Amino acid sequence: MQTLPDWLNPEPWLNRTFSASEVRQALGAESPDETTLAALLSPAAADFLEPMAARAQALTRRHFGRTVQLYIPLYLSSWCSGGCAYCGFAADRQTDRHALALAAVEKEIDAIKAMGFEEILLLTGERCAQADLDYLRECVHLAAQKIHNVAIEVFPMAEAEYRSLAETGGTGVTLYQETYHQETYDRMHRWGPKKDFFQRLDAPTRALAGGFRFAGLGALLGLADPRYDMLALYRHVRHLQKTFWRAGLTVSFPRIRHEAGGFIPPHPVDEKMLSQIIFAFRICLPDVPLVLSTREGAAFRDGMAGLGINKMSIASKTTVGGYSDKGSEEGQFDISDDRGLDEFCAMLRGKKLEPVFKNWDGVYRLTA
Amino acid sequence: MFLTVNDENYEHHGDGTVAALLTELGATPEHTALTVNGELVFSKDWKVFKFNGGDTVEVLTFVGGG
Amino acid sequence: MKDEQTSLKLGGHEFKSRLILGTGKFSDIETMVRAIEASGTELVTVALRRFNRDKPSDDLCAPLAKLKNVKLMPNTSGAMNSKEAVRAAQLGRELSGSPFVKVEIHPNPHHLMPDAIETYLAAKELAADGFIVLPYIPADPVLAKKLEDVGCAAVMPLGAAIGSGGGLSTADMIQLIIRDSNIPVIVDAGLRAPSEAARAMEMGCAAVLVNSAIAAAKNPVAMARAFALGVETGYAARQAGLMPKSAVAVATSPLTSFLK
Ligand code: SF4
Predict the structure, then answer these.
(1) Any catalytic annotation for residue C9?
(2) A and B touch per CB criterion (3+ pairs under 8 A)
(3) Which domain holds residue A348?
(4) What is the pLDDT of residue C83?
(5) pLDDT value at position A363?
(6) Fewer CB in a 10 Å sphere around the end CB: N or C, chain A?
(7) Each residue's pLDDT tens digit, A217-260
(8) Contact across the interface for B64 and C53, Cβ inside 8 Å
(9) What is the mean pLDDT of each run of 10 residues along chain A (368 residues)?
């Protein structure tokens, strides 16, 4: 197995115990680094959730004000050639498969636009005949006509392919490494192109080199030791920050709960641990948007809004074609927060947080 | 031959080589750089280089600076 | 990761000392030479000027050539734009045989603030021409990354205006530059006291460049030594890892009561 590159390897910061006073020091770090993060992720820091929350809230307010950025996912296709052990769309799962015809994509985008969204995340599974690059390019093009920020969460591709999507109007690429722990990665990804760890690891680099402006990173919490994954994730972000200094980076914290397919996560992460992770990331990456999706329940999301988290999806359907029809089949994962947009915005405003739909204007895009 | 050296009119009495001019000025060749009519004349070319009457010559050296 | 290397690396050259000295504004050459020796520096800046027939003793080349461990870094001061700076750099290289150049373009003779645009253009051209380029710049994190992209060996943001003794008035911006830089960050200009040099090093600067604070001190030679100690202290403190300030705030009402 190829070893992790130096800039990514989290090993030097693992297997270190931290005392309460070291956690307290990490809380006040002026230039946070890996040691700061390791301290804040340590078991000792679990007793400091309240001060960590206070610090995370203060930093979030300082950098983002009292705002929460909103986006909505659109599942284009549930076809997938992949074999991810934890996913309801894996090729060996029995599920009704669909790919939206372009006319239906347009209908969905209109429905989303009518709701007021200006940032959309288009999703597919692994590359397959039903949803290939040409199809994706058409979809990005349709979305970019109407929506300012068009991000994709799809299969990794070559730099030239990313460039063709960026030129069509794509602005962001979300691509989670799932886990940075290679041995776990290999076990979870049973076949197909996704088996290639490094090909996936490099994809955000190729996307940014290909002209995308934003890259979203993350690891699927539950697959491997969360401290290993979160330290590697942090190092991945820092590496990209230094290399692509023009790029906007975001970090998400998807947590495996009860997926369709009945996968049981080997390293379950509970709410307390998840909040500790999010606070730690806010303290160590004060100016990077941190994202929380509707995988999480309403109470947790309400609590975390503004407390480290400053970007959220809402009104999501993880089924294909969920916005203009009332789909009822199984999605990629279960939605835990199924509130509508209005209800959610009312909640945010109740917490004195302003929902923001657009923070980048497509008018700056020279190629569309 | 008449030259302009460091912005001043200057009458050169030698044979028009760099060595002759620098000796006349009292400058140490290894501590000197030269431009003629705005162009850098590299020290490796000094042996073959000859001034023409009317040339504008800058004779430069290092001084203290931050 | 913490910086573990102990020598300063600039374009493939290694320096044990992290103090770079400017050679201007000294009362006489002898004091300058002794200050250089006392500072332990291995890299000094020099400026290009017209040869003065009436004062051939101004010539710095001879005394500097005697300092065996000291490399020269010609600057481009006096240049008003990138074209002039490129030519000054070429003259400097011709004269010194040194690949180092401090790109310095400050068109306004009063405040001497660097021209970011011309500096960028000159740095780009000189880096492509094989120079080891160290540009003197405003403390601007975006400019710093752009200069890294075109191949500069380091960036040298100002701590305060040249000769002002204003200290590290740009500390926040310098911190941002250091955070995302893959090349050494060297504070140039503005420092007055060795404690400020120490602070710059504690922040993560790779070196500091000092001129006025030493040349204009009551005792320049002793001050050169004091700056060497300040730089060493700050660097050692950085390696040792400062204790963070405590930032444990207590919220009036609990923020995490929603957690299950
Ligand atoms: S995670 Fe993605 S690639 Fe893997 S099976 Fe699910 S849809 Fe396919």
Answers:
(1) no
(2) no
(3) 50-361
(4) 95
(5) 63
(6) N
(7) 999 999 999 999 999 999 999 999 999 999 999 999 999 876 55
(8) no
(9) 91 93 90 95 96 94 92 93 87 86 94 93 92 96 94 96 96 97 94 92 97 96 96 98 94 82 87 97 96 94 96 85 64 78 94 86 58
Query: CA–CA separation, B36 vs B44, rounded Å?
Result: 15
Any idea what the CATH number is for the domain that residue A236 is in? 3.20.20.70
Catalytic residue among C2, C16, C102, C218: C102
Q: What is the mean pLDDT of residues C60-88?
A: 93
Q: Cα dihedral angle (C140, C146, C150, C155), rounded to 10 degrees? A: 20
In this prediction the pTM is: 0.83
Q: How far is CA C227 from CA A330, C15, C201, C222, in A?
A: 69, 16, 12, 9
Show the ligand 1 pocket: residues with CB < 6 angstroms: A 80, 82, 84, 87, 89-90, 125-126, 194
Tokens describing residue A21: 């006073």
Question: Which distant-in-sequence residues (6+ apart) come within 8 Å of B19 by Cβ?
Answer: B29, B46
Is A335 part of a structural domain of the chain?
yes
Sheet holding C100-103, edge to edge: C100-103, C132-137, C156-157
Closest by CA to C32, choosing from C57, C53, C7, C15, is C57
Q: How far is B36 from chain C (nearest CA, A)?
A: 12
Task: Work out the pLDDT band at C3, boundaries 50, 70, 90.
Answer: very low
Subunit contact C189:B58, Cβ cutoff 8 A: no
- Quick one: which of A317, A358, A294, A315 has its CA closest to A149? A358
Please state, as a whole number, how many other Cβ atoms lie within 10 Å of the Cβ of residue A183.
10
Question: Is 2.60.40.10 the CATH classification of the domain at C8-240?
Answer: no
Q: Residue A238, exposed/middle/buried by CB under 10 A (0-12, 13-18, 19+)?
A: buried
Write out chain A residues lying below 8 Å of C241, CB-based: 35
A9 interface with C at CB cutoff 8 Å: no
| b (16+ CB within 10 A) / e for C70-94 | bbbbbbbbebeebeebbbbbbbbbb
Residue A63 inside a domain? The answer is yes
| Most distant pair of Cα atoms in chain B: their distance | 38
Q: Which domains, from first to last, does chain B contain?
A: 2-60 (3.10.20.30)
The torsion angles phi and psi of C108, rounded to 5 degrees, stand at -90, 115
- With respect to residue A55, please indicate whether it lies within any of the assigned structural domains: yes
